[in-house]
Amino acid sequence: QLQLVESGGGLVQPGGSLRLSCAASGFILDDYAIGWFRQAPGKEREEVSCINSDGSTNYADSVKGRFTISRDNAKNTVYLQMNSLKPEDTAVYYCNAGLRWGQGTQVTVSS
């Protein structure tokens, strides 16, 4: 079965950190550009970051300097390290590979 599974979300205080994981099964992540997206209530889904097969990365302006995307090919997993979290980072975070999407993981930043 081809699927992506996100994990690592949760409740964190402003200024805190979380690391999200996106694990693939049934296919090799390294063959794809992998994107992290998020969707807050009442808002459209937006791309947060992506990592290409050559290792190059891109970030939305709103997360530059705070989020870091990386991949571990041995584990067939992509990570999103999120530091200095803000309330406006609250959303469901999804990973994407081609036409495949994970189920999402909730991130809530609140005091």
Main features:
single chain, 111 residues, mainly beta, seven-stranded mixed β-sheet, four-stranded antiparallel β-sheet, 11 strands, 51% strand, globular
Write up what this structure looks like.
- There is one protein chain.
- With 111 residues, the chain is mainly beta.
- 0% of the residues lie in helices and 51% in strands.
- It contains no helices and eleven strands.
- It has strands at 3-7, 10-12, 18-25, 34-39, 46-51, 57-59, 67-72, 77-82, 91-97, 100-101, 105-109.
- Strands 2, 4, 5, 6, 9, 10 and 11 form a seven-stranded mixed sheet that branches. A four-stranded antiparallel sheet has the order 1-3-8-7, with no helix packed on it.
- The chain is globular and about 40 Å long.
- The N and C termini lie far apart (39 Å).
- The model has no long low-confidence stretch (mean pLDDT 95).
Low-confidence stretches: none
Largest sheet, strands/sense/barrel: 7 strands, mixed
Helix proportion of residues, in percent? under 10%
Shape: globular
Q: Could you tell me the number of beta strands? A: 11
Order of helices and strands: EEEEEEEEEEE
Topology, please?
Blueprint: E1 3-7, E2 10-12, E3 18-25, E4 34-39, E5 46-51, E6 57-59, E7 67-72, E8 77-82, E9 91-97, E10 100-101, E11 105-109
Parallel strand pairs: 2-11
Antiparallel strand pairs: 1-3, 3-8, 4-5, 4-9, 5-6, 7-8, 9-10, 9-11
Can I get a quick summary?
The protein has no helices and 11 strands. With about 110 residues, it is mostly beta strands. The mean pLDDT is about 95.
